[in-house]
Specification:
The structure is a homohexamer of 131-residue chains. By secondary structure, chain A is mainly α. Chain A folds into two domains: 1-56, AhpD-like (Up-down Bundle); 60-124, Up-down Bundle (AhpD-like). Chain A has helices at residues 14-27, 34-39, 43-56, 64-78, 81-93, 98-121. In chain A, helix 1 runs parallel beside helix 3 (43-56), helix 4 packs antiparallel against helix 5 and helix 4 (64-78) crosses helix 6. Chain A is elongated and about 55 Å long. Chains A and B meet through helix 2, helix 3, helix 4, helix 5 and helix 6 of A and helix 2, helix 3, helix 4, helix 5 and helix 6 of B.
């Protein structure tokens, strides 16, 4: 359960509804997920977060699927249940295959493991990496 | 400074040297970085870690650059200095452009931010994501 | 579900009940929350934790609301569901307004984001900050 | 050492220099710290991050010192060396006394401790906190 | 709910079933827990993870109970709900007494607290620890 | 560099010096490490932290070496450089052999890895673990 009630379309102010409708338009779906409905308690935080996310996740030098997988990786390292579910679902919607998902998980697990080993051993950074 | 001395080629046992030489062969470089030289204090841990990493990071359904960027993302979320330096350097060596790096950082930053917002608001997972 | 059963007043030893009653007296409520009822399996850990928390959270150079918000911020960064709920509720009980909550979340999100960017870029600490 | 060279004023593009100069104007200092000089490799990321940070950290329902302490708390939980130094310095510059700093550290330490105990015990959230 | 359906024995491929049966044989139980049933979507990841875990957790210079408690400690610091439950249960099955559990929690809480204090104060490593 | 100057014996108040001397007496060494010298800026925080740590780390149902290894594990998961160095050194001083250290690292790495896999897959807790 969230620390705040989720804001429905009916309860949304015009500023909030405008953001909800932009989310719908950009994503090509009528569905507005719970994150935005919780954030809507602070309309400025909602607007700023959506505006920035829309820009960051747009196609660019990296394709949107790679961006979703990076989002999934960070969220997994942070253990953010909601974010893992939403960005894994988004990656699948953008075409992530079962094989790609399995490999991404394997890389994430490997990174977690060696992050732990490096941390425990306090390995000094090689001069070669600093060039 | 590491919690253990780094093992040079000269000080390496035959088992350790065999791993060092496989690292050289697979990566096409004579350079063996500090992580492996620290791990070498436990030859079985060294062998198992290298063997698994070699498999996980090989080309597959995801290309090696995407794998390096996922590794970089996890390491950044965990704040692992060594891992960030080594995998950012590896991603650059595998062709990551400045524009790709900037976008990856933007996604990582965005993910950190919304991980924090979702965590603070304790947003419940949408049924739609559970399908 | 906890890894241990929660200890009710009826099941509490005299040492545990004395802590429960001190919690009631200090907080001006009859309610003893689940954290203390789980900790009660180790009466010394319960006593030591409550004694220290009571001191740390008392009014001082920082007012109790600021202390609750700092607690909420740390708990959010750590993704501790229980702690986020309990300290957000406590902050609201101590007068945190909706506007203050929204701004605190915005700061927490911003901090998470720049923590990620700084980590990814491995920015060196300015000499100016070391004075 | 950063993963990118820091951008000096001399090397800055007009877009980057405009951000640097806005940082100077808003903060009332000629000093632009390393974070911005590293971010400047991606002028859009620099602009977006500064624009948002300027808004979030401005006086509002919470005073700027409280905001800096929240930033310090999140950065400490995340173990971000640069961020801890910069926001501790900023909090001191905004008037944080030694007594306030000591109390903030005590709260942060207490939160870390009980986050760990709650996590280890997997304490279920009280219904009372969900109201 | 997992991001993938759990694989039952009936739905398991021969490769997957062989791993499930080895888990049963090594642990002396018919029960195969959910982690392995989720991992089974990627048979190679399943095999590699089980093979390594079996080796790492076997009796050696450290006894299996100490290994389970170390696993529990890492999982608690990372806030991994599933891992905390499974490794706390495993530690109890391997003989962890209530007193040992209480002391382990107290050490974990203390470590979290001083990790936070050290992080906030950015204490430099003593030369004496680098020998 | 710390955010505060380290307090030498000469600069210590009688309250602080009494703690320093108790550290010396309990540990059987003349050396007081930097953590305590940084904490000494807040004598009450110093006293409370030392008093609690002394109790928690004393021999009990777990032997002191196991306690140091648990401390090392939590500190490694949190990436706390100072804490990793100090508690690895302490574990070695209490008799941790190279083989024990290697196995502890292997367990920590394994735990990090499966924490990541479980987190990414969002594996539901088995009913069997909740008994």
């Amino acid at each position: 359960m969230a620390t705040v009630p989720l804001i429905s379309d009916e309860a949304a102010s015009p500023q909030v509804l405008a953001v909800f409708n932009d989310i719908r338009a950009v994503r090509g779906t009528d569905y507005v997920n719970n994150f935005w409905r919780a954030l809507a308690h602070d309309p400025d935080l909602l607007s700023a977060t959506w505006k920035r996310l829309k820009t960051v996740m747009a196609p660019g030098a990296l394709d949107p699927l790679v961006k979703e997988m990076l989002y999934m990786a960070v969220s997994t390292a942070n253990g953010c249940e909601y974010c893992i579910h939403s960005h894994t679902a988004a990656a699948k919607a953008k075409g992530m295959s079962d094989a790609q998902y399995g490999e991404a998980l394997a890389v994430i697990g490997m990174a977690m493991q060696t992050n732990g080993l490096v941390s425990g051993l306090q390995v000094p950074v090689d001069e070669a990496f600093k060039a």
